[in-house]
Specification:
Layout lengths: L23 E5 L12 H13 L4 E4 L11 H14 L5 E5 L5 H14 L3 E4 L9 H12 L5 E5 L10 H7 L5 E6 L5 H9 L4 E4 L5 H6 L4 E4 L6 H12 L7 H11 L7 H11 L16 H17 L3
Parallel strand pairs: 1-2, 1-8, 2-3, 3-4, 4-5, 5-6, 6-7, 7-8
Helix pairs in contact: 1-2, 2-3, 3-4, 5-6, 9-11, 10-11
Length: 312
């Protein structure tokens, strides 16, 4: 595929990297709900298969973009099993295991291991200003399930900032292998490399994918790939290959969409973007409500411009 931005065919995926299943482009999956707000498992599995065909290397399940807080325990377990079942054998599945209590996160990590996930993705304790020792203990319980652990640093989602210094202490736990860095501070990547070089840093916020991947982030756990996976994969691979100049036109076209990932309405915006791009986004569960008309109108215009610029 070649368009106005010089997009090339996407290849080179040769199976799940057993040591680094978070490499490449990992779509932070939305959860499709029907009009009755029940999980639409058929659409979920179709979406996973389509994303794989369009160039995504893996899938992150039951994270903040997946509205995990609104899922029942049964739904959350079924969503993970559905994704594992639908994902091709050469693509990875990262199971979100975040919860208010460490025992809940440990439970979901055990469930992930049984379901066949390749790694777990874990926020620090949510809703509680845990002390450093408590944060370490939290991740130790999660790691006990035996799957590689990707810590998820998103101070906007929790009340804890996994600073490089705190992460270095957490990274002494056997199994803590990577961090999804979504603090917004690109300097964190370099500090993390200095303090805990064995930990992979992953781009964890869409509008900093360029800065983090160009400087060596091992992967991108992103929202936009749900809507524009081929364009997102092309963008990532150009940055990873050091061709930042060649990616400039595509990055410029996509940036208005990438920037929504840093806003509180990121889930609604992503589902709206999917709809405009011809995919099913569907409604969000309360307390989220649809975007205000002025925001939705602007977002639709930005999506249409991005599609035109990318030769979609």
């Amino acid at each position: 595929m070649t368009g106005a931005t010089g997009m090339a065919d996407l290849d080179g995926i040769d199976g799940v990297d057993g040591d680094r299943p978070w490499r490449g482009v990992v779509a932070a999956l939305v959860t499709p709900f029907g009009a009755d707000l029940r999980v639409d498992f058929d659409r979920l599995q179709e979406h996973v298969r389509w994303l794989a065909a369009e160039g995504c290397d893996g899938f992150a399940v039951a994270g903040p973009l997946g509205e995990y807080q609104t899922l029942t325990d049964r739904e959350r377990a079924d969503v993970l099993r559905a994704v594992v079942q639908a994902a091709p054998a050469d693509r990875s599945v990262l199971a979100g295991v975040s919860g208010y209590g460490s025992h809940q996160s440990a439970y979901w990590a055990e469930q992930a291991a049984r379901a066949g996930a390749h790694a777990v993705l874990a926020l620090p304790p949510t809703g509680y200003q845990a002390r450093p020792a408590e944060v370490v203990a939290h991740y130790r319980e999660i790691a006990a399930a035996g799957l590689p652990v990707v810590a998820y640093n998103d101070p906007g989602e929790t009340v804890i900032d996994l600073t490089p210094e705190l992460l270095a202490t957490v990274a002494e736990i056997d199994g803590l292998a990577a961090v999804q860095e979504a603090s917004g501070d690109v300097r964190r990547l370099h500090r993390i490399r200095m303090l805990c070089p064995h930990v992979d840093v992953l781009a964890g916020v869409d509008d900093l994918v360029r800065e983090l991947v160009v400087f060596g982030a091992a992967g991108w756990i992103g929202g936009l790939p749900n809507a524009l996976p081929r364009q997102a994969a092309c963008l990532y691979r150009r940055f990873a290959d050091g061709d930042a100049h060649g990616a400039t036109a595509l990055y410029t076209a996509l940036y208005p969409l990438l920037s929504w990932d840093s806003r509180p309405e990121s889930v609604q915006a992503l589902k709206c973007t999917m709809e405009v791009a011809g995919r099913y986004g569907g409604p969000c569960r309360p307390p989220r409500v649809p975007l205000p008309t002025v925001d939705a109108t602007r977002l639709r215009r930005d999506v249409e411009r991005a599609l035109a610029a990318a030769g979609h």
